[in-house]
Amino acid sequence: MKNFVRLVRSAWPYRYRFGVSIACALMVALLSFMELGAVLPVLKILINNDNPQRWISTKIDSIAENIEQLGARREELARVERAFAAGGASAAPLSDRFRELEALKAGILDELQERRRRVDLPDQHGISSQFLAQTAGEIQGLQRQERIADARWEELTRGSYWLRDGARRSLDRRLAEIDRKRDAEAWWQRLYQGLKPAIYKYLPSDQFNTLSMLMGMVLIGVMIKGLFTFCQEVLVADVMQHTLFDLRNLFFRRTTNLDLASFSEQGSSDLMARFTNDMDSFGQGLNTILSKLIREPLRAVICITGAFWFNWRLTCLTLVVVPISAYTTYRVGRVMKRAVRRSLESMSSIYKILQETFQGIKVVKAFGMERVERRRFFLETKNFYRKSIRVAMIDSMSDPVLEMLTLITVAIALLSGSYLVLKQSIFLQIGPFKLQLASQVMAIEDLLTLYAIMAGVSDPIRKLSNVNSKLQRAAAASDRICALMDREPQVVESPRAVESPAHRRTIEFDDVHFSYPGRDRLLQGITLTVRHGETVALVGPNGCGKSTLMNLLPRFWDVDSGTIRIDGVDVREIRGRSLRRLIGVVPQETILFQDTIARNIAYGDPGANREAVVEAAKRSYAHQFITALPDGYDTVIGERGHGLSGGQRQRLALARAMLRNPSILILDEATSAVDIQDEALIRKAIEEFSRGRTTFLISHSMGAIQFADRIVLIDDGRIVAVGTDQELKRTSPLYRRLHEIHYRRESA
Ligand SMILES: Nc1ncnc2c1ncn2[C@@H]1O[C@H](COP(=O)(O)OP(=O)(O)OP(=O)(O)O)[C@@H](O)[C@H]1O
């Protein structure tokens, strides 16, 4: 998760947009809660034949009752305080008050029972609704009296405690608190009284009309909620896409800064998988965090807060399974991440097969390997299928588990709530244990509203159930992305690096040793000094290290030991870009891009004008075939130079190197694919071009190296002979053998 969090932090520049999206999410959550809250008035209208006028009157009455209750408490406390001030109250007057209250409560309870029995008479049909409403009103009145008696009892108990302990300050604080509450209640009372005339005048009193009005309000609420949901989703998408845009570019910058060692180790198909599949998985995780992970918990929290406000005891009881759910989610998450990582690796292998097959389709077809490649692809996709199924299984397993836990929550709420309503009690009796679950006896509509709110909690939780799998997928993908981003290039620029000298003197290879990672030593003690303007040919058997030696000059790799110097300056002390600007390379494998021929030639010098491009093409003898193409220099060539012959591609690569006008030229088998007719011409062109530049020629063709000033013979990573063609023929048996092989092949 560390890497995921690290990548998510890239969204920081878009925090204001995200802030607005959170505000929208908050509005969505509030409006969702209000939708659920509409259940209570609907039930009240249907069950109690309530209407807005009755509602506001009841509200004002209940506030008046609260104020009365608070007044009674205050009076009781003030009495205790007075007794306290008079020199400490004795226990006797207090116990008299307790007895008085007990008798009062017993009377109230008897009355209550009697009223309830009347409501529960078996022959309900005979009882008029007027009688029922009257009895319900009486019950409410009695309950109110009971609550007042309870409050007095409580205050008295506290008062006696305080007296015993003599904590006068607490008494004062309590009095101040009651005053504060009374002021607040008075404020609400004034507000409702202010609203009352308007409610009586404008709102319907009829049951059906009230219901219709309520539905209309819910509908408007849903529309406004839809608008906020839309805004939130658009803002989240914007933040996500911007973050991905930044990350992709950062990732590309880091990757292109890597050295060749990292590229050859990683493989381009794996890189592609990280750029596409992994980045996509991260994007989905980010989207989940920005949208669902903010909106749904907000909805859940607001509903839970509402449920707490409604009945905190019962809500607490239903939330006992939350730790179990959290632990299950955590365990599933760990297993999931491992499974996802494996499936991502398998996807990388699929990319690899695709790339190899499509790039090498000519070879695949020529060797009739279609079936083999199909089998390879089949096996890897099957492997991916197995791994994806495992991910899906873990994902699907967690869903029913979480659903089960949600159901347990609902069952707890349903059973205990129903118990309270059916027994008309505020206590839940489990064996010898008595648990208080309400502050007052709950009505059926209160219970149903609480269920609706709890259902409002379970909906976001259900929506969050697959969030975990998305996050784990994103976390696994982030690990792979970060692993590559954090990779340090082995070829690094020294902080003291200088601009390259204008090469005028020498290039020195001084006791150069080099080996590829994990391979035996390849170059062993290469020492060679090349003068400016000299043309040096490197010859030797396959794999002896010629190309490798030349790769060390532009620092594609760094030497293990020894030094390479240009005009006396160590190449490691020269700025990378500046060093490479000095050198023109025509590699063994011609690389062309899917673009026009002109832009391919001007690749290393995008500012070059058309005349310069045509001039370079003429020099490399490419002009003739280019002008024969339908769009000439503007002909778009296919991927990797598709649509051109090998020789034509090589000439374009040569033109590209010539256009840069480098001081040092490296030609690695640059004319190997050119036909005999043109070879002599191109050789002449190279000869002319190499004048005034230091040129390294790698070639197996003895004809191509004839114009070299010196020939360096390499064998098994060591220089075995240096001299002209004639000298080497005389002194080196290996050179003679290479010569013979070449001419035998030529004449065959
Ligand atoms: N990126 C690499 N990682 C590991 N080993 C490599 C790498 N590139 C080349 N080699 C190995 O280094 C050795 C020398 O390769 P190099 O390309 O320098 O030979 P060469 O003399 O240019 O051969 P040729 O005449 O066939 O082009 C070979 O054995 C090759 O397998």
Automatic annotation (TrEMBL):
<keyword id="KW-1133">Transmembrane helix</keyword>
<keyword id="KW-0547">Nucleotide-binding</keyword>
<dbReference type="InterPro" id="IPR011527">
    <property type="entry name" value="ABC1_TM_dom"/>
</dbReference>
<dbReference type="Pfam" id="PF00005">
    <property type="entry name" value="ABC_tran"/>
</dbReference>
<keyword id="KW-0472">Membrane</keyword>
<dbReference type="InterPro" id="IPR003439">
    <property type="entry name" value="ABC_transporter-like_ATP-bd"/>
</dbReference>
<keyword id="KW-0067">ATP-binding</keyword>
<dbReference type="GO" id="GO:0005524">
    <property type="term" value="F:ATP binding"/>
</dbReference>
<dbReference type="InterPro" id="IPR003593">
    <property type="entry name" value="AAA+_ATPase"/>
</dbReference>
<feature type="domain" description="ABC transmembrane type-1">
    <location>
        <begin position="195"/>
        <end position="473"/>
    </location>
</feature>
<keyword id="KW-0812">Transmembrane</keyword>
<protein>
    <submittedName>
        <fullName>ABC transporter ATP-binding protein</fullName>
    </submittedName>
</protein>
<feature type="transmembrane region" description="Helical">
    <location>
        <begin position="312"/>
        <end position="333"/>
    </location>
</feature>
<dbReference type="InterPro" id="IPR036640">
    <property type="entry name" value="ABC1_TM_sf"/>
</dbReference>
<dbReference type="Pfam" id="PF00664">
    <property type="entry name" value="ABC_membrane"/>
</dbReference>
<feature type="transmembrane region" description="Helical">
    <location>
        <begin position="401"/>
        <end position="422"/>
    </location>
</feature>
<dbReference type="InterPro" id="IPR027417">
    <property type="entry name" value="P-loop_NTPase"/>
</dbReference>
<dbReference type="InterPro" id="IPR017871">
    <property type="entry name" value="ABC_transporter-like_CS"/>
</dbReference>
<feature type="domain" description="ABC transporter">
    <location>
        <begin position="507"/>
        <end position="741"/>
    </location>
</feature>
<feature type="transmembrane region" description="Helical">
    <location>
        <begin position="20"/>
        <end position="47"/>
    </location>
</feature>
<dbReference type="InterPro" id="IPR039421">
    <property type="entry name" value="Type_1_exporter"/>
</dbReference>
